[in-house]
């Protein structure tokens, strides 16, 4: 049995969710981003307790198929941008269609209808958050960041960065204070 969970975006999320399941004596076989695999189905009482505990930690159990698919789209994009080690040279529509086994136009329409933004805009927002992270770490040049995130040029990255944040990458890099947004809040 698989239980789908919204807002699982990192390895710490997986640890926290796994801990909640273990506290309720629901021993997961596998915990992935956005899903927990169990040997046995939980009782109704366990599901209710699980929902409450997870919600108190910022997670949510997903019940309907369309919500599961939207969460899977987000998870795939987050994995692609934030957890991949190699440079991001991929066609997003082909990638999502292949991974989720649905026609891209269906995925795109569903996502836009439910989220109020396009998949592409969500993808760009995630890429800009990754750019912010890489700028803060100050280990790569802007041209290396542009290459890693598959921008055609530094000018394209800078233009998109300014459009999303209202700042140039160099101005952003020189700012002090908390500059990043939590992934699940994007």
What does this entry look like structurally?
- The protein is α+β, with helices and mostly antiparallel strands.
- It is 59% helix and 9% strand.
- The chain has a 4-stranded antiparallel sheet, with helices on both faces.
- Helix 3 packs across helix 4, helix 3 crosses helix 5 and helix 3 packs parallel to helix 6.
- The chain is globular and about 55 Å long.
Major sheet size, sense and barrel closure:
4 strands, antiparallel
- Total helical segments: 9
Please report the distance between the alpha carbons of the first and last residues. Answer: 29 Å
- Which stretches are poorly predicted, pLDDT < 50 over at least 5 residues? none
Cα radius of gyration in angstroms: 18 Å
Any idea what the shape is? globular
The arrangement of helices and strands along the chain is EHEEHEHHHHHHH
> What is the SS-derived class?
alpha+beta
Into which percent range does the helicity of residues fall? Answer: 55-70%
User: Kindly state the mean pLDDT as a whole number?
Assistant: 90
Strand order of the largest sheet: 2-3-1-4
Q: How many DSSP-defined strands? A: 4
Strand content: 5-15%
């Amino acid at each position: 049995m698989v239980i789908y969970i919204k807002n699982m975006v990192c390895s710490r999320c997986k640890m926290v969710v796994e801990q909640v399941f273990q506290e309720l004596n629901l021993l997961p076989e596998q915990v992935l981003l956005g899903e927990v695999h169990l040997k046995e189905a939980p009782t109704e009482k366990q599901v209710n307790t699980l929902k409450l505990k997870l919600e108190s930690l910022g997670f949510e159990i997903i019940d309907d198929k369309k919500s599961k698919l939207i969460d899977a789209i987000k998870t795939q994009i987050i994995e692609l941008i934030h957890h991949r080690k190699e440079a991001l040279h991929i066609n997003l529509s082909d990638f999502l269609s292949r991974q989720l086994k649905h026609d891209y136009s269906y995925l795109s329409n569903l996502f836009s209808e439910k989220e109020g933004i396009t998949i592409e805009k969500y993808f760009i927002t995630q890429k800009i958050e990754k750019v912010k992270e890489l700028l803060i770490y100050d280990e790569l040049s802007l041209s290396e960041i542009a290459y890693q995130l598959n921008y055609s040029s530094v000018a394209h990255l800078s233009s998109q960065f300014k459009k999303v944040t209202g700042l140039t990458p160099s101005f952003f890099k020189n700012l002090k204070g908390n500059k990043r947004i939590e992934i699940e809040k994007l």
